[in-house]
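Project standup — Tuesday

K.O.: blocked on the structure for the chain from last sprint. Re-posting the sequence here as requested.
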Amino acid sequence: MGLFDKLRAEFVDIVEWVDDSQHTLVWRFPRYQNEIKNGAQLLVRPGQCAIFVDRGEIADVFEPGQYELSTDNLPLLSTLRGWKHGFQSPFKCEVYFVSTRQVTDLKWGTPNPVMLRDADFGPLRIRAFGTYTLRAVDAKLLLKELVGTNASFEADMVGELLRSIIVEAFTDLLGRAKIAALDLASRYRELSEQLRVLVCERIDDEYGLDVPALFILNVSLPPEVEKALDARTSMNVIGDLGRYQQFQVGNALGAPGAGARGGLGEGIGLGAGLALGQQLLQGAPGAAAAPPLPGAPPLPAAPPPLPAANVLFYVSQAGQSQGPFPLQQLIAGIGQGQLNAATMVWSPGMPGWLPAGQVPALMGYFAAPPPPPPR
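H.V.: unblocked you, prediction finished:
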């Protein structure tokens, strides 16, 4: 390379930024000690603007287009440099390119639960998360307040600040709106727009940024609260738990007259109904175990007996003890013909297993047999 070519290579004659990133907001054109020569071409692509900074002061701002750098289109820089009659020599100046397009797929969320006073459930802790987009609208203000002398400035570098602002605005919004927790999901769109407006009010004049879109994707309750809500919903669907229990036992007892074919019937019979009742009553405090059936192996130990006001009965079926069951379930079984007077039953306080027809609490529900027909 000749001397003339070497000297010419020291000067920059094309100033441009080919942006191949997705999250870069500001990028400084690297000069590497080279000077920008008079008449150099400045190329600002769509979605960009260029800012010239001279000795710490912002000079000129260029919108998208192609420019030839001269005193005609660098009026502020010419004034700062003292070029009143034009310049012919190269000059040194920092050039920053600012992306004015939207940066998408940015996420926000509440790092800690937000307290909400709910009319239905009282104080609640809720979490929320969503997405937002970001765009630079005031390149000078952005450069002054956030970028400084950084060679590049990514959206992630301001992400923590924006997430804090969004969470703070979200907390204020919930306090003002006073929306019940169960109604939040139906108003995501409305709340998202209100939240976006609040965030923009806090960043546009301070940092030169705008949030064109912000979305609330989910507002969730703590897991223990969600489980309680599921249980409450199940109870509301079932309604009267006592009537539901009787309905289930009645379905499981089978067709009337099954007791005549073997005590409590075959197949699912009363065994299935009693097993369901056992599941519903399993773990009831104070439920006592029945004594072993005659000739049957001993039963495992059971919890202490219930008070007299809550007497439960055990029923023998095919040599197996089923229960405990409340008195009303056995009465329902008698009425449907699934228990007969010979069915062996036991209740806490009884000396041993007795036929149901000999138990005072049950004997009145068995109809007396008709007299023999006349000869």
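K.O.: great, moving the ticket to review. The longest helix spans residues 156-177. The radius of gyration is 42 Å.
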